[in-house]
Amino acid sequence: MSAEITSSVQLCRIMRPDDANIVGNVHGGTILKMIEEAGYIISTRHCNTQNGDRCLAALVRVEKTEFLSPVFIGEVAHVTAEITFTSKHSLEVHIKVMAENIITGVTMKLMDEVAGIVAARHCKTNIVTASVDAVNFQKKIKKGSVVTVTGRLTFVSNKSMEIEVVVDATSLLEGEKIKYRAVSAYFTYISLDRDNKPLPVPTLKVEGEGEQRRFEEGKARYLQNKAKRVTTKEQQ
């Protein structure tokens, strides 16, 4: 006799560049693989709750699959499987896929990675993120856009470095391929020795009016943040 089962299982995974085509659309095969995995897990779990030898479930048929809207790089795919019907030798599983846009977090991760590369090249030592300041999300990054992340060293003190990181985006889905500034921020890094103690940072060679201006602006931010830390420490 058949019975309705309410148990469910959910798989979540962020979509990576190797999951998608050149414009950022995740391949249907990637989603189908997650669907099959979710169905396999819930079916095998259900079968092994019954009396008898342990077993593994196998996919016999897919009734219908509808792709309602595309999933893009940087989104999290939530695949939920629910058993809707069972018979003596088979069971039916209903699966739905929801996409969650967390591109802000993905962008910040890319920015930190670029800042880390700039800091490591300058110090040639182990480096760690100390702080992130003045994060400006100027324009939304549209789905299907090519993102370019650029970092440059703007200021160094005795034991810290400031790296300016900007994110530019170009939409491949629109007629005009116009690049626009999406995000900008300042990352502060410190250099560490093998015992994870701060090391002196090499000096920054400044050339031209533009670099000098950015250096002075970075110095002002450094002194301002330093004053805030002193004030906070005194109030504790």
Automatic annotation (TrEMBL):
Alphabetical list of InterPro entries matching this protein: Cytosol_ACT, HOTDOG_ACOT, HotDog_dom_sf, Thioestr_dom
Domain (HotDog ACOT-type) ranges: 74-195
Any Pfam family the entry gives: 4HBT
Gene Ontology cellular-component annotations: cytosol
One GO molecular-function entry: long-chain fatty acyl-CoA hydrolase activity
UniProt entry keywords in alphabetical sequence: Hydrolase, Serine esterase
SUPFAM superfamilies associated with the record: Thioesterase/thiol ester dehydrase-isomerase (SSF54637)
PANTHER family in the record: ACYL COENZYME A THIOESTER HYDROLASE (PTHR11049), CYTOSOLIC ACYL COENZYME A THIOESTER HYDROLASE (PTHR11049:SF24)
Name under which the protein is recorded: Acyl-CoA thioesterase 7
Originating organism: Cynoglossus semilaevis (Tongue sole)
Record lineage: Eukaryota, Metazoa, Chordata, Craniata, Vertebrata
